[in-house]
Design a protein that fits this description.
Layout (H helix, E strand, L loop, with lengths): L14 E2 L3 E4 L6 H7 L3 H6 L9 H13 L4 E7 L4 E12 L4 E8 L9 H16 L4 E7 L3 H9 L3 E12 L2 E11 H4 L3 H10 L1
Parallel strand pairs: 5-6
Antiparallel strand pairs: 1-2, 2-3, 3-4, 4-5, 6-8, 7-8
Length: 200
């Protein structure tokens, strides 16, 4: 796996997990992002087929993300070795409706199929429910991404709708699948226990 560390060798641990934790993004991450998001297989999985961002484009994204009030993005860090393997976000955070959209990208292919993505999804949902006062988290998954669809189901999401022919790729149309999980369905988390300990 590729490493990306702070000068002290450890990144700030914002949302703790078992095998991974979520940390703040750093400008030094952008070289890795530019490499990841020039991989056609990855961009296909994240719903942006053919995207190939330059370092300059990643820098522009970073500056915009730093100013956004309705989005939160974390780096996914493997606890053993402190490797950054991807990012997970909550976007379109709507405090009035208490909902947000989730997005995740595991850019390090050496970390695929190891359960890190599912843990990151659960950690981000826990953060949203506990600290952003969300009631629901939703996401869109493309019909051809069967692996992601199954992973979201295992993480507790359920299908709530489909848009037929939502995306055209290589001459074939695929559905956009809308999935959701609510605070009630998610249940308690370690973050909930943390707040209870502080309040007691």
């Amino acid at each position: 796996m590729e490493t990306n560390q702070t000068d002290g060798g450890r990144r700030p641990e914002v949302v703790p997990g078992d095998r991974i934790f979520l940390s703040v993004l750093q400008r030094s991450d952008l070289l890795l992002f530019a490499r990841w998001f020039s991989d056609l297989e990855l961009t296909l999985y994240v719903g942006q087929p053919g995207m190939a961002n330059t370092l300059e484009q990643e820098e522009e994204w970073y500056e915009r993300a730093a100013r956004q009030r309705d989005a939160k993005t974390f780096a996914i860090i493997v606890r053993d070795g402190q490797q950054m393997i991807g990012t997970v976000s909550l976007t379109d955070i709507d405090q009035r409706r208490q909902r947000a959209a989730l997005g995740i990208a595991i850019g390090d292919k050496g970390a695929w199929n190891k359960g890190y993505g599912s843990e990151a999804v659960r950690l981000m949902c826990a953060y949203g429910f506990a600290f952003l006062n969300l009631y629901s988290v939703y996401l869109w998954v493309l019909g051809y991404n069967l692996r992601a669809h199954q992973a979201y189901l295992k993480s507790g999401f359920r299908e709530v709708g489909r848009l037929r022919g939502g995306i055209l790729f290589d001459g074939r149309r695929y559905e956009d699948i809308l999935m959701e999980i609510t605070r009630d369905e998610f249940g308690p988390s370690n973050l909930t226990h943390l707040i209870q300990q502080i309040a007691s």
